[in-house]
Amino acid sequence: MDLKRLRYFCAVIEQGTIAKAARVLNISQPPLSKRLQELEEEIGAPLFSRGTKKVEPTAAGHHLYRRACEILRGVEDATRETISLARTETRTLRIGLTHLYQNYFQNFMLELNKRNPGIQIGVSISDSSHLERLLQNKLIDIALIQHPEHVDGYSCIDLEPVRLVAVVGRALSGVAPRGAATLAEVGHWPLVLLRRAEGLGTFDRLQHKLREVGIRPNVVHYISQPGVILNLIESGLPAAALLPASEVDPGRWPQCEVIEIEPRVDVFYPSIVKLTAAPHVPEVMDIVDEGYRFSEKEFRC
């Protein structure tokens, strides 16, 4: 069985359409369709259900995809290990870290570095949508991001949700309640919300939650980085921000007040994500499997 055909087959399953898979693989659609047809002829059974816009695997297709992922992972592991031994070169672990959870994953990154002194760790910091694209193009090995909206082709380790808090500057401090507020109360103020470059994310989740409590939010800014939002609020922007508690240290922002949202509203879902077909990442997984405790920092509001 040809490995290239298996890679093409897995790409089509993960991307959902032949057109998307062709773009990711950087080939035209006709040769990709031909390789899939050759694979079906070799197997002697249809691997996809025809007649729908999205490619849907048959039962045989599902089975082959699972086994193909194992085979390709094994081949990539063997290749990487052999090259590493042959060149005696330093292994590089490529990690994508979202702006959304830089503080949340900080201690985990320190633990990763402490346990692997012989490994070079490269970190790309961006929003979750861009990091998903880097993951799909195999430019990073693993992503520490918001849980993906669509998980086809991903292996995800979902962590506990991070609390939502409101951050209010001095311009609104006279109208802001002390200690805690409902989402509806916060929703009446001008808002600054997080928003990724593309795709659904926390921006859409927050707006949906606000509409559920009868609020049509007045969003005056949307920004991808919590730190930029906090700088604006600290500098006197008359608005409130809705942010993950892990990214807000009240001690660093003396002109801001941090308000708990009660009852609790969950929209921030950190996750450790890799491609299903990508090689195992033991440096990360060993820490997780040993029960490493992920938790938001206990900042005092």
TrEMBL record:
The answer to whether the entry has keyword DNA-binding is: yes
Q: Where is the HTH lysR-type domain?
A: 1-58
**Which stretches are annotated as coiled coil?**
none
GO terms assigned for molecular function? DNA binding; DNA-binding transcription factor activity
Q: What is this protein called?
A: DNA-binding transcriptional regulator, LysR family
Alphabetical list of PROSITE patterns matching this protein? HTH_LYSR
**This protein's UniProt keywords:** DNA-binding, Transcription, Transcription regulation
Q: Give the source's domain of life in one word.
A: Bacteria
Q: What InterPro entries has UniProt attached to this entry?
A: LysR_HTH_N, LysR_subst-bd, WH-like_DNA-bd_sf, WH_DNA-bd_sf
GO cellular component terms attached to this protein's record: protein-DNA complex
Q: Which organism is it from?
A: Trinickia caryophylli (Paraburkholderia caryophylli)
Task: Say which family it is in.
Answer: Belongs to the LysR transcriptional regulatory family.
